[in-house]
Design goal:
Layout: H1 6-23, E1 39-44, H2 54-63, E2 68-71, H3 82-89, E3 100-101, H4 115-121, E4 133-137, E5 140-144, H5 159-170, E6 176-179, H6 198-206, E7 211-214, E8 220-223, E9 239-243, E10 262-266, E11 272-277, E12 281-287, E13 297-301
Parallel strand pairs: 1-2, 2-3, 5-6, 6-7, 7-9
Antiparallel strand pairs: 1-11, 4-5, 8-9, 8-10, 11-12, 12-13
Amino acid sequence: MTPRSPRARRLLLAGLGLCATLAVLPPAAQAAPAAAEPAVLVGAGDIGSCLSDGDEATAKLLDRIPGTVFTLGDNAYVAGTAEQFQKCYEPHWGRHKDRTRPAIGNHDMRTDDGGPYYDYFGEAAGEKGKGWYAYELGGWQVVVLNSSCDVIDCEGDAEQADWLRETLESSDAKCTVAMWHHPLFTSGWKHGSDPRVKPFFQLLYDHGVEVVLNGHNHHYERFAPQTPDGELDKAKGVRQFTVGTGGGGLNGFSKDGIAANSRARNADTFGVLKLSLYQDSYTWKFVTPAGSTFQDQGVGACH
């Protein structure tokens, strides 16, 4: 029915004109879709100790962070026995076992060359007796290595290095993160730099890997991107994190001086490192229990 009032007819025509204008708005004028959620890696090393409540505190942090949990070795103190996995790791970090991808440490290797470690984590730990493996997460390649070089050959022409080289060369991933227990670079006083893992770092650097995660020293330390020789390289360097803060005690830094290119350090709090993995970048955040004042977070681009 046509409105009789001239004013009503004008209002109707104006409304029809507005509808027509809205209908032809270009797509660019519409709201942009939300950015894809990143994949999350979160974890630490040097974890389960029946003599410390630090692992209980860090497990509570994991409770509120979704994603894939990593460990950086020395999962069950002090000798990686089956009993220690059940009594010192299982009660807290064990509740995240179904989403955990572990790395082996020297304390885990003390019993039967890591037998209880492989039995506890099962297929998630890689082939028994080797401990190196890789998986894909959100378009990233994740590489896990075994740095117990007194038992496993870490030389550049050994089986593990050959596997690493082939894995890196065959991957289509733009971004890669690698992890193992013993750090090549450290400012720690208790455990120094371990040059035996340099072949790993060299291969990763040569293939444009972004991040390396280590434990062994019971503190948190972040380095600027470096070459395998410890030279600053902002364009191609690998950024190393030491995250030995999972709960098995804390130890500090060398009185002889801080390592070159060390950018952040803390030995006063337990915590976990959260990595958010985007298509061509990543962010990091060191997450600590309530009451801690230390913070470290940032962003990096893939090579």
